[in-house]
Amino acid sequence: MSQSFLNHTQFHLLYDLADDYVFFMRKENSTYVYEFINKKAEELFSDDPSGRTLEECFNEFHNKTIVQHYNRACLQKESVCYQDNFCVKSETIINETTAIPIFENGITYILATTKEVSRTQQMKESTYVLETFHTAINEVALVAITNQDGIIEVVNELFETTTKFKKEEVIGSTFHLINSNYHDETFFSNMWETIRNGNIWSGKVRNRTKYGSFFWVNATIVPIRNDLGQIERFLTIQFDNTEKKRMMTELRNIERLFKLITEHSNDLIAITDAEGYLLYSSPSHETILKYDKEELLGSYYLSLVTDQTEIEGLSELKMEDKFRMELLLQTKDGNSIWTDTSITTVESTVDDEKQKWFVIVSREITEKRALEDQLKFMAFHDSLTSLPNRRSFYLDFPVTISSVSSAFPNVGLLYIDGDNFKEINDIYGHDVGDQFLTHFAEKLNISLDYKYDVYRIGGDEFVVIIDQIVDYVNGKSSKVEEIVHSIQQNLRIGWKINDFYFSPTSSIGIAMFPNDGSSADELLDNADQALYLAKKDGKNNYIYTNAVHV
């Protein structure tokens, strides 16, 4: 590591208490080397990255992204701000990084500060608007629904408040109950002719309250058709002229926002009744899930969930107003998409009876899930051989030894090292060496008949965990030795790379749980000592740990 103008103590005094990730990098040829990172940034690394390059710490895609923006900052000689995605503790977050170039004594440095960007508010706003839509209408308009003969079936609370008639007095009657006798017969005849022909009627009407006072409204009557296209009801919406401008403006804003969100949003927005049957679905169901609106309306919405066992968790909705989870939805063409789904309970009282609806807002996160799975795989697998890595070994080992019982009292650990691997790299080059390790790993899996996991823990060193051993007696196990002989035999068969034939050997150290240790580190250390002795005794050999401590 070079001697920079900023030393270790100064850096940590400045940045260890910061809430953001802070990195101090040195430009070296076409890449950047970590000089220091603060306490917060240590969350991103399993080992201290100081002195290591970006290529050694990140995958090719993420590395190229960082280098591109760092180079831009250096070229422009000014700070550069950019956003990217990164996985921290199994969660993909959006980061915003500010990269500041520093030029000192002919050396170029980058001081990078990264912070997490707040998630988008669109989903929260979508749910909020849908919840308030019904409430807002009730607050600004008198609403009534009649049958085709004009008999009132439903009125809202504002209708009662304004007319002074109780709901029970109105339902079953006609609008004649609030007729002020201001309008003549022609006025109402034209109105009925318009709406019975399926057209919307609008006009100003003078009504009277129960106690005889008059009030003017701007009324709109909308014919409501059934699935056969027949008019079966009329929706009447009346706005009191006194507050007309304020109420109309508020209603238009709500309607406009509702339409923008539901009709033009990529989110899947649905409203169901209390039983989960669909009442409304946004057009995105057609573009994303490929279903026509007619196919979904009236159906059980959660039948779209691919894994029906996930639906069991939704029973919590009975106790919670809001519920959020990731669901896998089935498309009409047989594919599936992952969604981040928010379900909100909306309750209201209609005719003195409580009713419940569910507002469901789903956002597709298929690519995000795929990225998370890829990042998780990369975190726990070797990039060359795709075998589980050391981190994976430390996670799996406690699970394996927890299965030890009187019936299966032992677990074996094989520490395998390829003999003379360095010579292959020296003679044939690293490309052939990488192919050699890939073949070597595959031969190990074949030798184990894919029954046990093989872990690559570094270079040409591999570890195998063998469980359910019942024949470990006098420091030996026939089951373990059978596997060792299978490994030696399959390696001896060999393979070809670029017309070169390889028939390698390996040295193996064997440690047994619990005899040779109770922890992963203790067993690895003992197996490593046995491996060293096996190599010392001529390679292509295997030795038990108990032979080391004789």
Q: Can you walk me through this structure?
A:
This protein is of the alpha+beta class. It folds into 4 domains: 8-116, Beta-Lactamase (2-Layer Sandwich); 123-260, PAS domain (Beta-Lactamase, 2-Layer Sandwich), CATH 3.30.450.20; 268-367, Beta-Lactamase, CATH 3.30.450.20; 381-548, 2-Layer Sandwich (Alpha-Beta Plaits). Helix content is 35%, strand content 32%. The chain contains 17 helices and 24 strands. The protein has a 5-stranded antiparallel sheet with strand order 2-1-5-4-3. Strands 7-6-10-9-8 form a 5-stranded antiparallel sheet, with helices on both faces. Strand 6 and strand 7 (152-155) form a beta hairpin. Helix 4 (122-140) packs antiparallel against helix 8 (244-264) and helix 13 (421-428) runs antiparallel to helix 14 (430-447). The model is unreliable at 119-124 (pLDDT under 50).
Provide the descriptors you would attach to this structure in a database record.
24 strands; single chain; Beta-Lactamase; alpha+beta
**What is the molecular shape?**
elongated
Regarding CATH, which class of the largest domain? Alpha Beta
Per DSSP, the total helix count is 17
How many β-strands, per DSSP? 24
| Rg from Cα | 36 Å
Low-confidence stretches: 119-124
| Total individual domains | 4
Q: What level of helicity do the residues show? A: 25-40%
- Give the percentage of residues in beta strands: 25-35%
| CATH architectural designation of the largest domain | 2-Layer Sandwich
CATH topology of the largest domain: Alpha-Beta Plaits
Report how far apart the termini are: 44 Å
**Main β-sheet: number of strands, strand sense, barrel status?**
5 strands, antiparallel
What is the average per-residue confidence, as pLDDT, rounded to a whole number?
A: 85
